[in-house]
Design brief:
By secondary structure, the protein is of the alpha/beta class. It has a domain of about 130 residues: Peroxisomal Thiolase, Chain A, domain 1, CATH 3.40.47. The protein contains 14 helices and 11 strands. A hairpin with a 2-residue loop joins strand 5 and strand 6. Helix 1 crosses helix 2, helix 3 packs across helix 14 and helix 7 crosses helix 11.
Amino acid sequence: MKKVAIIGAGNSKFGNRNDVNVSELAFESVKPSLEDAELRARDIEYLALGTTGAGALYEEILPAVVVAEYCGFTEAGLIRCEAACASGSAAFFTAYSAIASGKVDLAIALGVEKMRQVDTSTTMEWMGRAGYYFWEFHNFGLTFPAYYALYANAHMAKYGTTEEDLALVAVKNHKYGLKNPIAHLQKEITLDDVMSSMVIASPLKLLDCCPITDGSASLILASEERVRDLGIDTPVWVAGIGYSSGTANLSRRQDYVGLEASVLAARRACRAAGITIDHIDLAEVHDCFTIAEIIAYEDIGLCKKGEGARLIREGQTEIGGKIPVNIDGGLKAKGHPIGTTGCSMIYELTKQLREEADERSRQVPLRKYVGLAHNVGGTGHYCYVTILKR
């Protein structure tokens, strides 16, 4: 297997992007990633596109073809990757694998999603089908917040986690979202703001939930040989990738206080990278809802099971704490364009590891120059954990 590095990274502005179509939105991240790598579009041999809403949330049925033509990648190999909310990480893994296997030397992983083109109820219905449609959504009418509310209630009952603990996650992530110029929600909130917001699926309230967001993120990957030939000064190496999945039917899960797919993916990623979780300088975790961040702390090994709330209470996941988490605002404040999120997490890690995230005092102090991205699809139906090292 060949070594693979990230040599270019770009991210569009997240938010309500009805000012552009899906190809134009993709180009907003592709252009800076090519400029970052000092490459032309025709240099790219393979494109892996992460997206889930094609033909449902936005107009294009074959978005990889349309986006590739608009961005100048016609003649490159194309593939569309779908892994629900982990589609961006699946695209990254696919582009990585194309290089690691020796098939190509330059590839691009691109995530793009337009979720605001349809009305909210349509988006919520479509998201509610992310698990087992006939069992959960069709029979019981569960929406996506309700899936995670089941986990929140189970975690609170077993470990004493409180609604205030969940709210602290939102407060932290909005604090850093305000410092991130590409974030969807650039507004600080208070504990009282979260606690008094409208209940969506008890105990989750409106400010416990990520926004419906449009956006794109782009990463250019290269083989070790091309990194050397191009004279790249600060390559960020892919140290290890782990992946796993969970049952489609939630009733077949062993418990509802964590995601087994996250546990397995994190272990496999650390083993592939030859490290332990203690080597990590910072993490991006999948906080589609505030409870998801707390259980992610536990599942990937930042603390023992049941101790996730303590980390947020003590400020251990902020800059200056034990392990900064979601310093870009996370899905909660930066936004969660479904197929884009995994690539955007890796974009943030790349900028941090190259010490280029200093806008508005958001750079994490680095010890070992190692970062981790944890990206979940559905309610633990898919999971990818990607470890980068500079």
